[in-house]
Amino acid sequence: NFYYCNYYMFLHLKANFKMKKVAILSLLLALILSSACKQNIKESKVLKIETKEQISDEERMEWWQEARFGMFIHWGIYTKLAGFYNGKAQPNSAEWIMNRAEIPIAEYEKLAKDFNPTKFNAKEFVSLAKQAGMKYMVITAKHHDGFSMFNSKASDYNIVDATPFKRDILKELAAECQKQGIKFGFYYSQAQDWHHPGGMGNHWDKTIKRVSSDEYVYEKALPEVKQLLTEYGPIAIFWWDTPRKMTKKVVDSLYHITTALQPRIITNDRLGDDYPGDHKTFERNGPRYKPEAKYWELCQPISGSWGYRSDDDNFKPIPTLIRNLIDQASKGGNYLLNVSPTHEGTLKQEAIDRLKAIGAWMDKNSEAIYGTQASPTETIPDWGRITMKKVEGKALLYLHVYNWEDGGALPVRLKNEVESCYLLTNKSRTFQTEIHDNGINVKLTGKAPDSVASVIVLKLKGLPNALPQKPLAQNEKGEVVLPAYRAQYENLQGPGAQYDERLDCISSWESETARVYWNFEIKTPETFQLIGNYSAKDPTEITVSVNGQTKNIKIPASGKNIKRFKKLELGTITINKEGKQELSLMPVVGKWTALNLKEIKIQPIKN
After folding, report:
1. CA dist 320 → 175, 315, 317, 323, 387 (Å)
2. Which of 211, 288, 393, 514 has CB 3.0 to 4.6 Å from 497, enough for a Cys bridge?
3. Pairing relation of β-strands 183-189 and 136-142?
4. Which helix (H) or strand (E) holds 253?
5. CB contact at 8 A, 83 and 94
6. Helices 20-44 & 2-15 angle (0-180, nearest 10)
7. How far apart are CA 412 and CA 415, in angstroms?
8. Model pLDDT, residue 22
9. Are 148 and 223 in contact (CB under 8 A)?
């Protein structure tokens, strides 16, 4: 680390040699890195210094995958406004109020003088997270408004220097997390800062005497990041947010100092376009199907707003929250559930009640969440979800049953022999299983032991052997639905079509040579109407082909919001014989502009 830090310092100074002003800022970076090196040298007398390159990704991510569940905390001086400015409710989450209401810096700063969360208790806060079954905690060290929720040495605009509270909340939480065995991490808004003249995002306050974004990073962001990584003990996670067009030089600086000071740290994918981080981030809505990413996380507020709003009573029901946790684990991901303290430092009772309810379920069923892998089957069962563990060459499948019917059956599409099948919370309560061509059927008996999700353990005699996904075929209405996630692609030259988990659609369809197609089966031949569910900013034209029948379809613009999908009739086709079919979509050369496609429905025309 000593040689790495000094070499990086040398390169940075050399690159800025001719820039007097930036050279001074570079000297600041040099001092930061030099200080970090000295600290590492002191620590090396007791501890062996590691580098990120010496630690495998699997080793760094091991605890994170085991954890599956964490607490996110959005907190700042905006809680004094609680979503209202001049008596009027402002749109968006509460932490964006300075931006949405276009509050001048001088006026917004006054909030700090009244910010005094005397009811905050770090021990109680961490204890509540632990009671909920959470294994890690991430809190906003600095959000877009620029206010630092710790004793920043780079800016007086912080909770210790600018408020009557005079306490470092992050230091108290860090210490308490270490005591209670919870991994601790920071959220940091690296590009946006509506308070600093070099920060991005403040377009309304004309009193700002602008400086470069680089100057902001070297003067404030980089020193604060260094402080967070050296004065608060072991930091497990650094959670970046809202990447903007920052220079590669400053983003490199943030990345390298993070990994140099805490080599085992885990980062998300929001530092910059060329910095994928360690895991993919989904916000508010999780992926409908298992993502391709090896590591990923859904962050979601427990209510409607990330930060505290006095009018936010949109708390998610307890069953929804528990099933959201199960759903992410069943797809191999983590669940980072956000809470929003008030200006007094407490949570609403509705949030506390929900965390305790999740904890009560986890007390009985955490084995089916912690350290589990994604379901081995591609099909998402309509009766619930599946998580899995592999133990000594055998698989334990945890069947999370949402819809329990006495005498009903749970189909599991695996070609395996079963060793045992029992209720997780009562091993003496066993269930019969049957092996069929379509997989394993677990027979349910009696009443559901849990109204939200009852967990049955299905122990296989070996590792799972998943049956192929069921073919796309007609349902009871005679329809065939061709969803985006089941599409196949070919003839891709340059940027082509791909599946977007977040919008659950085919997107990035830039290339005119990208063919998208589905294979499906028809049992009852007849004439069908094709209906597409799409969004497109501009008009476009596409060729639809079904077993030799080809039509060019003009598709109008649906609107600027690509998240709003519209249905469009794509013409009719006649299928004369049963069996395997193919529907293909191909852009019309010279008339193509990208669109998003959620699904194609093949619907019988009723006379």
Report:
1. 32, 10, 5, 5, 17
2. 514
3. parallel
4. helix 248-261
5. yes
6. 180
7. 9
8. 43
9. no
Structure confidence at residue 16 as a pLDDT band (50, 70, 90): very low
User: CB under 8 Å to 462, separation ≥6 — which residues?
Assistant: 393, 394, 395, 416, 417
What pTM value is reported for the model? 0.82
CA distance to 24, 211, 411, 450, 489, per residue, from 18 (Å): 11, 18, 70, 69, 51
Query: What whole-number percentage of the chain has pLDDT above 90?
Result: 78
Distance of CA 147 to the CA centre of its chain: 24
Rounded to 5°, angle at Cα 462 from 457 and 463: 85
pLDDT tens across 321-339, in order? 999 999 999 999 999 999 9
Identify the CA nearest to 597 among candidates 544, 546, 536, 554: 536
In whole angstroms, what is the distance from residue 592 CA to residue 312 CA? 44
What Cα–Cα distance (Å) separates residue 594 from each residue in 103, 560, 569, 586?
A: 38, 13, 18, 12
> How much is the pLDDT for 48?
55
Which tokens in the block code for residue 379? 């099909």
Residue 6's pLDDT band (boundaries 50, 70, 90)? Answer: very low
d(CA 454, CA 605): 42
Q: Which DSSP state fits 91?
A: S
* 472-604 CATH fold: Jelly Rolls (2.60.120)
Cα–Cα–Cα angle for 385, 386, 391, rounded to 5 degrees: 165
Q: Summarize pLDDT for 519-557 with one digit per residue, the tens.
A: 999 999 999 999 999 999 999 999 999 988 899 999 999
Does domain 51-368 fall under CATH 3.20.20.80? My reply is yes
Instruction: List the one residue out of 261, 232, 214, 72 whose CA is nearest residue 150.
Output: 232
Residue 86 pLDDT greater than 60, yes or no: yes
**Has residue 14 got a pLDDT over 50?**
no
DSSP code at position 421: E
pLDDT for residue 50: 77
Which span out of 287-296, 417-426, 471-480 was modeled with the highest average pLDDT?
417-426
Which residues, 6 or more positions from 119, have their beta carbon under 8 angstroms from its beta carbon? 344, 345, 346
Question: CATH classification of 384-460, choosing from 3.40.50, 1.10.10, 1.25.40, 2.60.40?
Answer: 2.60.40
Region 235-254: mean pLDDT is 93
Provide the token pair at 470: 């069921």
What per-residue confidence (pLDDT) applies to 394? Answer: 94
Long-range contact list for 417-421, CB < 8 A, 24+ apart? Answer: 417/460, 417/461, 417/462, 418/458, 418/459, 418/460, 418/461, 419/394, 419/459, 419/460, 419/461, 420/457, 420/459, 421/456, 421/457, 421/458, 421/459
Write down the domain spans for the chain.
1-49, 51-368, 384-460, 472-604
Residues 6 or more apart whose CB falls under 8 angstroms from that of 418 comprise 433, 435, 440, 458, 459, 460, 461
Angle, helices 20-44 vs 248-261, to 10°: value is 10
Using a 10 angstrom Cβ sphere, with 0-12 exposed, 13-18 middle and 19 or more buried, the burial of residue 68 is buried
